[in-house]
Write a structure and sequence with these properties.
disordered C terminus; three-stranded parallel sheet; alpha/beta; 26 helices; globular; 31% helix; Rossmann fold; eleven-stranded mixed sheet
Length: 700
């Protein structure tokens, strides 16, 4: 099937076991299997999350979709990974184990941006922490192998997806191999997995060996070499990174590798005018090369992101030792009809009964929400959505969304008439797309919104306004909130959308994420300038006043992002003070695998531009003291941060900002028991200011 004409997701002949389905809940025990009349499972999904039968949970979507194809699917949720016993409890699967760490990367789930262990886990009953291992995909895969030798193991979900090639690991501060290599799994599924996992299941059921299934879009496999009939293009021919020293040729190692005569390596001078993209593979620098050479790492990261459009992406290959990691092009997005059917499968929309009355915070947050779309064309460099779900928006139909609201009203326990969200990765990209499908298929931009909104992007959000209006008229629905992240640079393109949002769908506060105020950090984030925020802010308060509502914007910012200097954070702190913002919690940049900002963090290069050895360098605040300082600037009002800020301001030559007036950032005195002060509140030495009077000190 071609990208233009993919096979319909529900067009396969059902597997023979469809006579057993659907199950009330996908079974988690042999007892439940017996009640269903199953002697075995065809597929067993192992997940790091508690099993919640809701379309916001990956294991539920994949499990119910495979069930709809006629397969018997069991769930092993949050198994004890210290031995293989829990992995045997549903018996030997007939086709394969599907392994996922869950809705979150297990390392992000367990550790803060400062590498401190989190005490809780929102995807676990009772929010109990420590119910999944670090790098859960690797551990679970190994236990599946131990439990039943010879059963194929397929890894997927966001953890595997963002580790599909050699990647920088923030927690170990080193470049690690592809998760497919380290897990010893048979196949890796990346991105939205529906097309690949359905095709894989049917092909395995038809008797194919998983070793022979190497052509599925959205998958990565290991090979011994390049198959015959493929043309190999070196990544250095796509965008030359420049010579390395040593060795003189950054691709010398690969040049020394034997190449079959049927697989020519083309160069700029020998490349034909037209190559068959479907039979062309781009060779990335090897794992060994990107591990030792930051320039080649940044170069490989840029090439990976340039080859992310399903309409024009080519296969990638990256050597790991003596094996070739082969990454097929991204999956073809689901049509509206297909996405509707995926979200209207027979989900129970509640946690599995085995959890009893235990509270699962992640479920509590989304149980009255509706996902209306997938994907994001914003391309923010620190975000993982684009790398996982892609830049092309996949939309549900208006009718399907309204039906789901009615289903929530009629079936979900505890519904009080309030829908907590109509959204997805973003709140307001539903039905937005390129004006011309041919242009979209050929595009290689990293973002449709940066450095400005693409002239080919349709930005009319009136269809979303009409959806909101229809949803509000459903009997039994009292209020609909919009909680997903809002792209305010898009919102201002349709003022009527802002009016509708502010008038009917904001509950007093609206959180948005300008992330920074200064051009340098914003450029490295691929985020719009603060002037766009000001435009949105003016609209927000104008329409709030017109609606007779007192409502407030709550902006979110990132500290310690690549490209951010101490001076940038100081300017942000002064902006916050001028605008009267006092952040309760702040977010520090966390370098997630495969993100473009992570490449900046690790390499000091800018992959938003052509990467060369003499090209742009990017500063990153890496040391813990500097990261604490950047967070302290965001919480300039917290006395615990004042000693650190005073020291920094003096070092930066800005001691004029230490004092007790409105123009100052931090006071010259310290409350007793805070910061470095002990005993009575007392001033820190400064040549410019004096401590306030006792009366003012008490007031503060």
């Amino acid at each position: 099937m071609t990208p233009e004409n993919p096979r319909d997701l529900f067009g396969y002949r059902k597997y023979w076991a469809h006579k057993f389905t659907p199950a009330p809940f996908l079974p988690m025990s042999r007892k439940e299997m017996d009640e269903l009349g199953w002697d075995s499972c065809d597929i067993v999904i192992v997940t790091g999350d508690a099993y919640v039968d809701h379309p916001s949970f990956g294991m539920a979507i994949v499990g119910r979709l495979l069930e709809a194809q006629g397969f018997r699917v069991g769930i092993i949720a949050q198994p004890d990974w210290r031995n293989a016993e829990d992995f045997r409890k549903l018996g030997r699967p007939n086709l394969f184990f599907g392994v996922t760490a869950g809705n979150m990367d297990s390392m992000v789930n367990r550790y803060t941006a400062d590498r401190k262990i989190r005490s809780d886990d929102a995807y676990t009953p009772g929010a109990e922490g420590g119910k999944r291992p670090d790098r859960a995909v690797l551990v679970y895969s190994q236990r599946c192998r131990e439990a039943f030798k010879g059963v194929p193991v397929v890894i997927g979900g966001i953890e595997a997806s963002l580790r599909r090639i050699a990647h920088f690991d923030y927690w170990q501060e080193k470049v690690r191999r592809s998760a497919l290599v380290d897990s010893k799994a048979d196949l890796l599924v990346y991105g939205n997995a529906e097309r690949a996992i359905v095709s894989l299941a049917h092909r395995l059921a038809a008797g194919e060996s998983i070793r022979d299934i190497t052509d599925l879009r959205g998958t990565a496999v290991l090979r011994n070499g390049i198959p015959e009939g493929w043309t190999v293009i070196d990544a250095s021919e796509v965008e030359p990174p420049g010579p390395a020293t040593p060795p003189a040729d950054p691709y010398a190692e690969r040049a020394a590798m034997p190449q079959a005569s049927a697989n020519p390596v083309v160069t700029l001078h020998s490349r034909p005018k037209r190559l068959d993209r479907s039979r062309t593979v781009i060779r990335l620098p090897s794992y060994e090369q990107v591990k030792r050479d930051p320039v080649l790492y940044a170069h490989a990261s840029r090439i990976l992101h340039l080859e992310s459009n399903p309409g024009n992406a080519r296969a990638l290959v990256q050597r790991h030792g003596d094996r070739e990691l082969w990454v097929n092009p991204p999956p073809v997005p689901l049509s509206t009809k297909e996405l509707d059917r995926v979200y209207e499968l027979p989900y129970q929309r509640v946690p599995h009964p085995a959890y009893g009355d235990a509270r699962i915070p992640a479920y509590e947050m989304i149980r009255f929400s509706v996902n209306i779309m997938r994907g994001c064309f914003g391309g923010c460099t620190f975000c993982s959505i684009t790398e996982h779900e892609g830049r092309i928006i996949q939309n549900r139909s208006e009718a399907s969304i309204l039906r789901e609201i009615e289903t929530i009203r009629d079936t979900v326990p505890g519904f009080t008439g309030i829908i907590s969200d109509l959204g997805g990765p973003t709140a307001n990209m539903w039905r937005l797309h390129c004006r011309d499908p041919k242009i979209e298929a050929a595009c290689r931009r990293l973002s449709c919104l940066w450095p400005g909104i693409c002239k080919n992007m349709k930005t009319d959000q009136m269809p979303l306004v009409r959806l909101y209006r229809k949803a509000r008229t459903i009997p039994g629905v009292r209020r609909i909130f919009i909680a997903s992240g809002l792209r305010y640079d898009l919102a201002v393109e349709t003022p009527e959308y802002v009016r509708e949002l502010v008038t009917h769908h904001v509950g007093g506060y609206l959180k948005i994420a300008p992330e920074h105020t200064q051009p340098g950090p914003l450029a490295h984030m691929m985020k719009p300038g603060i002037g766009t925020y000001d435009r949105f802010k003016a609209m927000f308060y104008k329409y709030s006043k017109a609606a007779g509502k007192e409502q407030y914007l709550i902006p979110y910012f990132i500290a310690a992002h690549p490209g951010t200097t101490d001076e940038d954070m100081l300017e942000l702190a002064l902006w916050l003070k001028r605008n009267g913002f006092r952040a309760d919690q702040v977010q520090a940049f966390l370098p997630s695998p495969m993100a473009l900002a992570t490449a900046m963090w690790h390499t000091g290069r800018n992959p938003l531009k052509r990467v060369t050895r003499s090209g742009e360098r990017v500063f990153s605040p890496r040391g813990m003291r500097q990261r604490r300082l950047h967070k302290a600037f965001l919480r300039y009002h917290d006395p615990e941060n004042w000693p650190l800020l005073r020291d920094a301001l003096k070092r930066m030559g800005r001691a004029d900002l230490i004092g007790n007036g409105k123009r100052h950032l931090v006071p010259a005195w310290q409350p007793a028991g805070t910061g470095r002060a002990r005993g009575r509140g007392r001033p820190f030495r400064t040549t410019h200011t004096h401590p306030p009077s006792g009366r003012n000190r008490r007031r503060r």
